[in-house]
Design goal:
Metallo-beta-lactamase, Chain A; alpha/beta; 223 residues; seven-stranded mixed β-sheet; five-stranded mixed β-sheet; 2 domains
């Protein structure tokens, strides 16, 4: 399925992105309550499942807080105009509360401080997120030095690595491993891989000891 994450802190659940597989991913994880969604960027594979927040509106009796940049907000309002309609709004439309964020300022979600990290996805700025010793960085090609400083001293890093070849908007495996070596997290997981990465067992044998390939349903605990 498409790359996404679910952060659980106590009884609170925070999703990172809501792509085309959002509904299936929430069902598989057995999530009956979702407290917020963080959006990394506006590409289809990261936002197009937004309509499926509807069941959580019913279950939680609340508008879904969605944290995103100005650029993402504009795209959501265009693609999901019916959600944000103010006149003759369909009564069953998803209820979403947009909360604007930027790389400049940390923000709080359900008592957790989230530090946004700007990444360059080719020429498009996107956001990664750091919570304590955990950082989630997807669709990365480059990171500016001032943003790089935000993700040092990590316990666990989740980082995208598309495949083995050079790509204009994604890190390949060699580049991702070089970045991991620079950051030196205790553990790193690679995500957003294409079928061209190769077979899990074969690729895993060539990775450093503290690096593993991510997979659907992967769970881990961060101290």
């Amino acid at each position: 399925m498409r790359t996404a994450a679910l952060i659980q802190v106590g009884d609170k659940h925070i999703a990172v992105d809501c792509g085309p597989d959002f509904r299936a991913q929430m069902l598989r994880a057995g999530i009956s309550r979702l407290d917020a969604i963080l959006i990394t960027h506006q590409h289809n594979d990261h936002i197009i499942g937004l309509d499926d927040v509807r069941p959580f509106n019913f279950r939680n009796d609340m508008d879904m807080p969605v944290f995103c940049t100005v650029a993402v907000e504009a795209e959501l309002k265009q693609r999901f105009a019916y959600i944000f309609e103010t006149q003759n709004r369909y009564p069953g439309a998803p209820q979403v509360q947009l909360r604007r964020i930027s790389k400049a300022s940390p923000f709080e979600v359900e008592g957790q401080v989230v530090r946004p990290v700007e990444l360059m996805h080719g020429r498009m700025p996107v956001l990664g997120f750091r919570l304590g010793g955990f950082a989630y960085l997807t669709d990365v090609r480059t990171i500016a030095p001032e943003e790089f400083a935000k993700v040092k001293n990590l316990d666990t890093l989740v980082l995208s690595a598309l495949h083995h070849s050079e790509h204009h908007s994604h890190l390949n495996l060699k580049q991702a491993l070089a970045l991991i070596e620079q950051l030196s997290p205790r553990q790193a997981y690679l995500i957003h891989m294409s079928h061209r990465m190769g077979l899990h067992q074969e690729v895993s044998q060539k990775l450093p000891e503290n690096v593993a390939l991510g997979y659907d349903g992967l769970t881990f605990t961060v101290d």
